[in-house]
Amino acid sequence: MKKGQMLYEGKGKRLYKTDNDDLLIAEFKDDLTAFNAQKKGSEEGKGALNNKISTQLFRLLEQNGIKTHLIDVLSDTQQLVKKVQIIPLEVVVRNIATGSLSKRLGITEGEILPFTLVELYYKNDDLGDPLVNDEHCLIMNLVKTEKDLQVLRHLGREINSILFKFFETKGLKLVDFKVEFGIDRDGNIVLADEISPDSCRFWDAKTNEKLDKDRFRQGLGNVKVAYEEILRRILS
């Protein structure tokens, strides 16, 4: 598959045209960002690790009935994916309180939530990706109908159910995660972007050691080591 013109560059990936109008190449970067890109860094090999981790998790989800944009792996850092129209919402799924939820509502970090919480954030760097409600989404035409919002929340919970059980067997707590969805040429809402330690919080089940991008956010160090540990456990 021939890589063509770059269409988009985000915090963690670049997207390129191919010689097929329905397919794109997604290239994972080594860049690290936090706090709406106010903190920046780089970790050699991070892109390759995220590619491998996300590939394994997308395939697991596909085996359990979740449609994704993933077609194939092209190299250590590149995937072949379906071209989709990204829905400009981040679907954030929370099992344990931490991060912005604890800061915003004063819920003690580490407190297990009484039910899975699904929140929607408007994908807009200039506005700081604000939390939005259903009415906001409809007013701004971020989705077409209320049913689309119901589908996004349902998919978020389904993905959580699958991944939570999976990571439990790997000695990990799936604290929370962010997923993005797109609409394919047939009008289907499919999982897009990635699922990796960049977009998830993983804590060791016994020690609560953080094994995700919080190591960069909080200056804990050993970012690559943590990502390698997540991949090792996924493959074990």
Automatic annotation (TrEMBL):
<dbReference type="GO" id="GO:0004639">
    <property type="term" value="F:phosphoribosylaminoimidazolesuccinocarboxamide synthase activity"/>
</dbReference>
<dbReference type="InterPro" id="IPR033934">
    <property type="entry name" value="SAICAR_synt_PurC"/>
</dbReference>
<keyword id="KW-0658">Purine biosynthesis</keyword>
<dbReference type="InterPro" id="IPR050089">
    <property type="entry name" value="SAICAR_synthetase"/>
</dbReference>
<comment type="pathway">
    <text>Purine metabolism; IMP biosynthesis via de novo pathway; 5-amino-1-(5-phospho-D-ribosyl)imidazole-4-carboxamide from 5-amino-1-(5-phospho-D-ribosyl)imidazole-4-carboxylate: step 1/2.</text>
</comment>
<protein>
    <recommendedName>
        <fullName>Phosphoribosylaminoimidazole-succinocarboxamide synthase</fullName>
        <ecNumber>6.3.2.6</ecNumber>
    </recommendedName>
</protein>
<dbReference type="InterPro" id="IPR018236">
    <property type="entry name" value="SAICAR_synthetase_CS"/>
</dbReference>
<dbReference type="InterPro" id="IPR001636">
    <property type="entry name" value="SAICAR_synth"/>
</dbReference>
<dbReference type="InterPro" id="IPR028923">
    <property type="entry name" value="SAICAR_synt/ADE2_N"/>
</dbReference>
<dbReference type="Pfam" id="PF01259">
    <property type="entry name" value="SAICAR_synt"/>
</dbReference>
<keyword id="KW-0436">Ligase</keyword>
<keyword id="KW-0067">ATP-binding</keyword>
<keyword id="KW-0547">Nucleotide-binding</keyword>
<feature type="domain" description="SAICAR synthetase/ADE2 N-terminal">
    <location>
        <begin position="7"/>
        <end position="233"/>
    </location>
</feature>
<comment type="similarity">
    <text>Belongs to the SAICAR synthetase family.</text>
</comment>
